[in-house]
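Researcher: Quick one. two chains, 1041 residues in total.
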Amino acid sequence: MSRARQPALAPLAAVVLAAGLALVVAIAAGRVQSVRVASAEAEARMAAALWEAGGGVPAVVGLLGERATMLGAGDGGEGAGAYAYEAGALEPAAWIAVAPRRAGGRLGALPGAALAIALAGAAILAGWAAGRRRGPARSRYPGVIALLSIGCVALAAATAGRWADRELRSLSAATVARGAQAVELALAGGAEPARAARVAGLPWAHDGSLESSDGQWTMPSEVAAAIAAAPDRGSQPAGAPAGAPYTVEAGGATWHAARAADIHLALLGYERTASPALALAAAGGLATLLVVLALHLVQLAARPRALRRTLAAWGLLAPAAALILAFTLGPLVFSLWISLHEWRLIDPAPLFLGFDNYAALLADGEWWSAIGNTALFTLHVPAAMAIALALALLTRGSRRAMRWARLALFLPGITSVAAIAVVWKWLLSDRYGLLNRGLERVGLESVPWLTSPDTALVSLMTIGVWMVVGYQMVVFQAGLAAIPRDWYDAARIDGAGPWQRFRHVTLPGLRHTLFFVFVTSVIGSFQVFGLVYVMTEGGPLGATDVAVYHIYREAWEFLQFGNAAAMSWMLFAVVFAATWLHFRFLDARRAHG
Amino acid sequence: MPRSTTRRSPPATTVRATGVAAALPRATLVLAALGLASAGCAPGESGNVLRVALWAGGHELEIERQVADRYEALHPGVRIALESAPNGYEERLLTSIAAGRPPDVYLMDSPDIPTFVERGLALDLAPYTEALGFRPDSVFGQVVDAFRRGASVFALPKDFTPMVLYANRRVLAAAGVEGLLPAAGWTWTDFRRAAEAVVADTDGDGRNDVFGFDFPRNLYQWVPFVWSAGGDILGPAGSGAVGYLDGPEALEAYRFLTALAEDGLTPGAQFVQQGDPAREARFAWGGQAFLLSGHWTLPVFRDLVETGELDLAIVPIPHHPSRAAATSVLYASGWAVPPNARHLRRAIDLAGFLASPEAQRIRARSGLAIPSRIDVAAEIAAADRTGVEDAFIALVEGARMTWGARVRDFSRIEALAVEIMDRRLIRGEPLASSASDVARRIDAEFER
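Model:
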């Protein structure tokens, strides 16, 4: 049976390699195709804007020539195109369909180079697979073949990326040129400059405040910076040419433009040149991974039982792995990328800053204050563990009272944080809270539990202890159950009292449990958010401003996503360092017996 | 040991492999069914569905649904999907825009205007006002101006509210100071005298349980006091805080407000943005004489007013004794259309309907805000037997739109500005030094 399957599996690697390379090529070609359609739609919108500016059919024909087809408003709506409206009208007058333009380069350039690489790689692999059947596998240098295959994938991805980028730039330049032509047609048709500028189709061009009589533009700095980030799309930088009266100052650069429309078109061009490099790199990586996996399978083909088990294991792991990739690793990589940019979620393009966000954080006092508060909050963990351990010892056994006690203690751990926070907020209210009323009843002064910087964090820590102690207690009881009864009996025979048994039997027996609870609780306390969000909003005067709440505000209140992502990675580094130190500490203890 | 376990396992492995193989077609079917279901259910993918983003909840959402139903009745074949997020509205809206799937129409709050307009996320509706039958002069001037930039109009006003003082007449009458309630305007001195007079320990437990006011901690609450002292928080261009936020007039306002808390005229301060959660209940049952709020609080009290359980008066915010009148602050919202809306012209038409007199009349049933149209607001006021609507409208004149409608990233300024009085009440720090420090930090933010 295994011999019958081997020939079928052997060419698998070649097929996978070819498929991976085809994926890379398809992504690059797909990106170019989508930009071709998007450019056609942009041109259609320009033509529609020209129509609306009063140009009518002649202007559309003058702009797009034979590539435009005019249809009745009821006949169009599909494919690349746009509805044309009379000025201020809400019902369309016509549908302008536009045939997507071919890119500047020859389309055959990509398949020619990339497919040749793909075929060469597949041929090498197929040759190896065929040769493998004639001789021992180890003599065919599978490692070298694998490296060659990976090289093929990387080369094909790089070639496809270069091709796609060139095509996109060519399409972009053509779109910009078409936009400039549209603006000129509008101006020639008697349109106001502001109206003509709108033909470029950029939303912010509609903002009247951007027009300035003295030529000094007050456009959003992010927009100008986006232009600056694509110098070959923007107007000429540096110097003050006589024919360029408009000046844009942003991102430390000064830009001059002969016409207002140039700036609009520069951004239009920039938007069209988003390179597919990231997608290609991902596809290349995936193809490489698949090739390596396929080679591994081919190696396993000689042992059918192992192959079956491996396939079954991969099949079972695949759904979870896909979820982790999509919802954990993917966002992680994305947040790392964001942390290197200035980005407000709705900016047209993130501005690359390198490590500026991280450098700024090092000098940000409020951020370090939040880290300090978080570290202070973490101090509740040892207290919670001590109480949990005591409760675990006290509530052992199967008596009904013990079972109810465990249930009562465990309940806070499974209750919604928001609900807990709301209830505690009322309990701790200065004026109406149950606690303060109780204190007053017994003749004591009320305490500003949440409204004083001296007590607010301590109050939250106390609630934190109450919340986690039940869960920790259950884990400790599991740990206690695992300690052999013989140890206690032996200790008793040796004359050990309760404290000595606890000190020399229970604690050493719980060592791993204690470590697990400590590390997970510290990590959990570094992520505290709900209590702060509902109860104190980081106040008073920042006394409870913890790291995750600080990050949340930076992102969602102040829309500084780059900063927030950098903070997240710094927090990760702090938590990682703390955990690593714990491990080192434990290793050192082990080493010393 | 593991190896022997592995050796014992082949039959089981075979069974599992068979199970997996058998499950694959089923899993494929389930996935396909899910895919079809999601494709069928995706809102907004259909050409006749218009998505509207708003923050209405409960009864307000029911009323917005009635408005949407009316539009659907007028436009057969069109369906309106209301995507409401009473909490986290801005997060949801921004995410949908960033994901390239913005709603067709969205509700724009006044503090969000610069964020959305300056980033090109709102279409200029000025070219369509004629087709929509929208006349700017039919709307309260300050409200429509908030959404204007030059000749452009970036949202069609929905409704608005000024910040006013709710007064509990019974509490004031019990203290014998009902006569201090103003017909038109009053000074800080009068207000403080009334607040002092009502403070009382009615149950004899040694603690006061009736108060004059509750401490207005947030900028949106105390900015009218600064204006009513003749000062401001930012320079005329909205780009500098030093000399304004820490100016002498602003300092006088801070001193006046913090003294209310320090002298026991308020039930202690709450240092959170959401404020004192008991304030409305305390006001309603007679534990507080004055409540600073907008029109949105009125529905909470309306039943009590109509049954006579609450004797309510709407009065202006008091002004500095050296000034002639107070200047309140306005908050408004309007219907905007993203330039990349999927159904742009239909979206514009819908925005026009949502801001129309017909929609505003339906919406006025919720009583949460004042309709932006002057004629509809007058109709509502005329139909109101309690007189509070008239009082609200009378206070619109002379009120100013929030700085947030002009200054980008105003939330950062709001977050910093609360520190001024917090530092005084918590640490006893002089107001001048905390105001100066906060003003400097705000200017540093502007620089950044």
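Residues 12-64 of chain A form the longest helix (53 residues).
Researcher: Thanks, that's what I needed.
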